[in-house]
């Protein structure tokens, strides 16, 4: 990321701590986001969408129900990210906003890079190369794909609101489109 984007996100984290949650820590949030990403991606892969009610917004869940039913098995398998297979995580966009009724929200977009052993072709739709990593020698090689996902987490900070983060956007480029 650019130095400007890094500074901007750090400024937003300071605002979150000053005005919304004095205990907020991006390190703790990132640990929780990784765990949520792993759980949600595995449930998506297993088509257990009914278990996502408390984790994912109703709007996103409705879209997922339509998309998951149309996915080929190898793409569905590629959605699953074991927490130990997450190679890199970074924050994307951070937003603080108020709606017309005075409700306060914080939204943080997280980007994940993870290894997955699904049987994907070398080229996926859109003619974009999927990175492959081979483990072992030629006779016992195990092919893994380096895949990406974007999950947006939102929390309402209006007085009296539940202190829960909800996933409001799920993107698995070239898999869940």
Written account of the structure:
By secondary structure, this protein is α+β, with helices and mostly antiparallel strands. It has a single domain (3-171), classed as Nuclear Transport Factor 2, Chain: A (Roll). The chain has 4 helices and 7 strands. The strands form 2 sheets. Strands 1, 2, 5, 6 and 7 form a 5-stranded antiparallel sheet that branches. The protein has a two-stranded antiparallel sheet with strand order 3-4. The chain is globular, with a radius of gyration of 18 Å. The relative contact order is 0.18. GO terms for molecular function: ribosome binding. This is MAIP1 protein.
How many helices? The count is 4
Mean pLDDT, to the nearest integer, reads 88
The tally of structural domains comes to 1
Q: Please give the CATH class.
A: Alpha Beta
- What integer value in Å does the Rg equal? 18 Å
* Coarse structural class: alpha+beta
| Gap between N and C termini | 25 Å
Helix content range of the residues, please? 25-40%
Q: Strand-residue fraction? A: 25-35%
Question: Based on CA inertia axes, which overall geometry fits?
Answer: globular
Largest sheet: 5 strands, antiparallel
CATH topology: Nuclear Transport Factor 2, Chain: A
Care to count the β-strands?
7
> Segments where pLDDT lies below 50 for 5+ residues?
125-129
Q: How are helices and strands ordered from N to C?
A: HHHHEEEEEEE
What CATH architecture do you see? Roll
Protein name: MAIP1 protein
GO molecular function, one term: ribosome binding
